[in-house]
């Protein structure tokens, strides 16, 4: 492959790395993908990957280096981006794509439409109500969990649009979801104690940060793993706080 300009290669590497980080990839996947792309273009690359940014040193020859840093965007899980960039890195290696072609493909991946909002709301609420059923809940409790989860996620999305603090958004979503679940119980007591309370807030569980934190620690990226673990625990605390306040209001605890 004809050697590409280091500025173009650096731009691709940093754009790929920060997209992967913000879309939910663990640190080792980010490093491997960026390394594969750099080597495909004939460069030796060294990275400093943190939770918020990536610093890149691109070695052009024995005496020339190219340094750049890019901050990661706000965390928004998108596994379509993760899988798409992984496939793209293999295409670069096997098909010797030019930097212009890669930039166009990255732009296409970024422009892909997300699932419709109402579809996401319905599917998440359906998942929570399904967990309620698996835990022994009846049809009425499933309907209550669906309604509470749907409303809570809607509120969380609206707060995110308004740039409300992430942890405050999780706290309010947890509180509102639990208040809806408890309010219905006042009119019609549940057959199974606390079943709807517990399963209606499952959509808030920070699975990706906690899983990635463990993977980062096991892969040797202890700092990133600890940061992600703290993020996961902070979200968990916000969930618990919202749940606790609602339960205290209803005198459940």
UniProtKB/TrEMBL annotation:
Any one Gene Ontology molecular-function term assigned to this protein's record = transmembrane transporter activity
* Source species of the chain: Pustulibacterium marinum
Q: Where are the transmembrane segments?
A: 142-159, 166-184, 196-214, 226-250
Instruction: Give the family this protein belongs to, as stated in its UniProt record.
Output: Belongs to the ThrE exporter (TC 2.A.79) family.
Q: Which residues does UniProt assign to the signal peptide?
A: none
GO BP annotations, alphabetical order: succinate transport
Tagged with keyword Transmembrane: yes
| Cell compartment(s), UniProt | Cell membrane
Gene Ontology cellular component list: plasma membrane
Query: Which keywords belong to this entry?
Result: Cell membrane, Membrane, Transmembrane, Transmembrane helix
Keyword match Mitochondrion? no
The Threonine/serine exporter-like N-terminal domain covers which part of the protein?
12-249
Give the protein's recorded name. Uncharacterized membrane protein YjjP, DUF1212 family
Membrane topology (UniProt): Multi-pass membrane protein
Pfam families found in the cross-reference section:
ThrE (PF06738)
């Amino acid at each position: 492959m004809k050697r590409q300009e280091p500025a173009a290669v650096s731009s691709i590497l940093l754009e790929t790395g920060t997209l992967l980080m913000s879309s939910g990839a663990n640190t080792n996947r980010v490093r491997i993908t960026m390394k594969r792309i750099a080597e495909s273009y004939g460069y030796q690359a060294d990275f400093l990957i943190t939770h918020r940014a990536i610093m890149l040193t691109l070695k052009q020859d024995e005496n020339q280096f190219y340094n750049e840093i890019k901050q990661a965007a706000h965390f928004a899980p998108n596994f379509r981006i993760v899988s798409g960039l992984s496939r793209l890195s293999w295409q670069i290696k096997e098909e010797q794509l030019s930097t212009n072609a890669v930039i166009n493909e990255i732009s296409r991946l970024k422009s892909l439409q997300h699932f419709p909002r109402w579809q996401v709301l319905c599917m998440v609420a359906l998942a929570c109500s399904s967990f309620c059923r698996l835990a022994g809940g009846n049809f009425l409790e499933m309907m209550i969990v669906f309604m509470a989860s749907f409303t809570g996620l809607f509120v969380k999305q609206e707060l995110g649009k308004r740039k409300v603090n992430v942890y405050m958004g999780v706290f309010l979503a947890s509180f509102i979801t639990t208040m809806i679940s408890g309010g219905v119980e006042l009119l019609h007591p549940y057959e199974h104690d606390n079943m709807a309370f517990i399963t209606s807030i499952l959509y808030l569980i920070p699975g990706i940060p906690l899983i990635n934190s463990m993977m980062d620690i096991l892969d040797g990226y202890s700092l990133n793993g600890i940061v992600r673990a703290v993020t996961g625990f902070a979200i968990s605390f916000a969930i618990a706080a919202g749940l606790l306040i609602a339960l205290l209001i209803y005198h459940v605890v």
